[in-house]
Amino acid sequence: MIILITGATHTGKTALAQRLMVKYEIPYLSIDHLKMGLIRSGLTSLTPEDDEELTTYLWPIVREISRTAMENGQNLIIEGCYIPARWFDDFDNEKRTAEICCFCLIMS
């Protein structure tokens, strides 16, 4: 199972991912960690303020990490604000319903 957690800043995405990791013993990937690794290593000229461009840049990587985990029968939690609203267009219906769960956290 792939669990995607997205939403605006300061909605508790990281806190939820860490709680799920501990409770269900599922590893998690922070897209922010991936982003900063790519920025600090000089592999991209994008900055942390380039939100739209970062989504376009990071999502193909995150999507393929998700597919790899599914192919290997692995569970993975992925959290971050760089998951596009139409993420589901990149997976066939069978995968979406059987192997991926997405939560979008909002402030209320």
Architecture blueprint of SSEs:
Elements: E1 2-7, H1 13-24, E2 28-30, H2 31-40, H3 51-71, E3 76-79, H4 93-99, E4 100-105
Parallel strand pairs: 1-3, 1-4, 2-3
In short:
The chain has 108 residues and is α/β, with parallel strands linked by helices. The chain is 46% helix and 18% strand. Strands 2-3-1-4 form a four-stranded parallel β-sheet, with helices on both faces.
Write structural notes for this entry.
The chain has 108 residues and is an alpha/beta fold. The chain has 4 helices and 4 strands. The model has no long low-confidence stretch (mean pLDDT 95).
List key phrases describing it.
single chain, 108 residues, alpha/beta, 4 helices, 4 strands, 46% helix, globular
Report how far the terminal alpha carbons are from each other: 28 Å
- DSSP summary, beta strand count: 4
Rg value? 14 Å
Overall SS class: alpha/beta
Which word captures the global form?
A: globular
Mean pLDDT: 95
Number of helices: 4
β-strand amount: 15-25%
Query: How are helices and strands ordered from N to C?
Result: EHEHHEHE
Helix content bin: 40-55%
What oligomerization state is this entry in?
single chain
